[in-house]
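Problem 12. The chain below contains 291 residues. Write out its predicted structure in token notation.
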Amino acid sequence: MCRGALATWQRNATQSALHQEVVVSEQILAFDYTEAGSGPAILFLPGSFGTGAGWKAVLGHLGDGYRTVTTSLLGYGSTPDTRPDGNATMAQQVDLIDRIIDRIGTSPHVVGHSYGGLSALVHALTGQRRPRSLLLVEANPLGLLRSAGDLAHYAMFEAMTRPYFADYARGDAEAPRHVIDFYGGLGTFDSMPPKVRSYVVATAAVNVRDWSSGTPFEPSRETLQSIAIPTTVVRGADGHPAMRRIAELLHDAIPAARLVTIDGGSHFLPSSHAAEIAAVIRQHVDGVPTT
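Solution.
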């Protein structure tokens, strides 16, 4: 794992994008919204502890010819968290994505990293606004391991989340180290600059809601086979074994899905391998027939 690239990703996570406001049930729901360029629309969904700024390096390599939209998911950046403690669901995240697509005004190609990839996947299955295609970068629907009967890899997640939740519940400010080190390797949390580490600590409650909302999602193979849009699944060759297995299961179940493995990459591919991810996005989007 490239420590410098991870630090850049997390530093970008502390930046905020522009605001877009819509009326929801007589309340104002604000969400981060930054748009640039023209061409096929691409919506970028960041992972936990991140904002739309986390895609900055990828966008720098993507080139012209695309209408890019970045945002932040619930609780990150300037997007408020509408999920109550103890009752966080993916439905609330799906609703946010629907509203962002309404703002875009057309069906975008949706690119999601980590929890953003999980959110994109659930939205493709249950959302009201159909995406043009999916590109899932190190997506983490860990419940897929349970539904596939791969309890050994699922137990790897449990071995991390169990002490994470316990440490968080007892007020340990450094509880997020369990998550960061799980994905980035032992010592990654300690290697972060103090300002970046403070942001991760400050959004721990949001991340706990991410886990509590995403973990119950256990799609069957038949459910994933209903995805009828072009899909590319991306994983890091040096990523966590459980994450590599999830990518395999997604590729095997989603019809005509393409699996791309980034050599030398781990979990934080949008920062550590921005040029390679941009190339995959170009190939994916340019290969989808226009309608």
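Discussion. The domain at 3-286 is CATH 3.40.50.1820 (Rossmann fold). Students who got a different answer should revisit the alignment rule from Section 12.3.
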